[in-house]
Amino acid sequence: PEVRDALLEQVLLQPKSMAAYSAADALNAALTSCGMSILCGAVPFACLPALSLGSNALLLGAMAAWYLAHGRSMALYLAAILPHGIFLLPAIVLCCAAGMYLCGEITRRCRRDKSGPPLLQTASQMANVYLLLAFPVLCAAALMEVYVTPRLMSLFL
Fold first, then answer.
1. pLDDT, tens digit, for every residue of 42-55?
2. Distance CA 53, CA 37 (A)
3. What is the DSSP track for 69-92?
4. How far is residue 64's CA from residue 74's CA, in Å, rounded to a whole number?
5. How far is 64 from 68, CA to CA, in rounded Å?
6. Which residue from 84, 50, 80, 53 is spatially nearest to 64, judged by alpha carbons?
């Protein structure tokens, strides 16, 4: 419980209130998170993009535990997560998978295995995943997070 409360204190006490949270803020946060998941794949042998998935799972679990510990409805928790999470979570998984692929390709190159595609082609594929697949989905998630999620949550408050 102490770890859960300390973690959620950092999340719940963000400097901006939800009223001042714009779609641009939500999109910027999601793009940064997904972009870093891909870029962390540039570190060979480390599989750092997996940390992004783990930290998201930790945060979702900690928030669910906080809702239960404070007598809040799980319906409220789901209303807070599902509208934008339907878009956001697959985009995060996609970007983490792209980062893991990039890590594998760079690791393969470090081992001097020349059997795969050139690194420039791999970088182009990562850019395509980020710009053509993740970006539109993250735009939808940002709009849902700002405009739909608060209204849906208000039904359970």
1. 999 999 999 999 99
2. 9
3. HTT--HHHHHHHHHHHHHHHHHHH
4. 8
5. 6
6. 80
**151: burial class by Cβ within 10 Å (0-12, 13-18, 19+)?**
exposed
Alpha-carbon torsion 144, 18, 51, 79, what sign? Answer: negative
Token pair, residue 74, equals: 């799980």
Q: Are 121 and 60 in contact (CB under 8 A)?
A: no
Contacts of 20 (CB under 8 A, 6+ apart): none
Contacts of 33 (CB under 8 A, 6+ apart): 52, 92, 95
The Cβ-side half-sphere exposure at 126, using a 13 Å CA radius, reads 28
Helix (H, G, I), strand (E, B) or coil at 156: coil
The three-state secondary structure class of 32 is helix
pTM of the model: 0.84
- What's the number of CA atoms in the CB half-sphere (13 Å) around residue 142? 19
Per-residue pLDDT tens for 63-87? 898 889 889 889 999 998 999 999 9
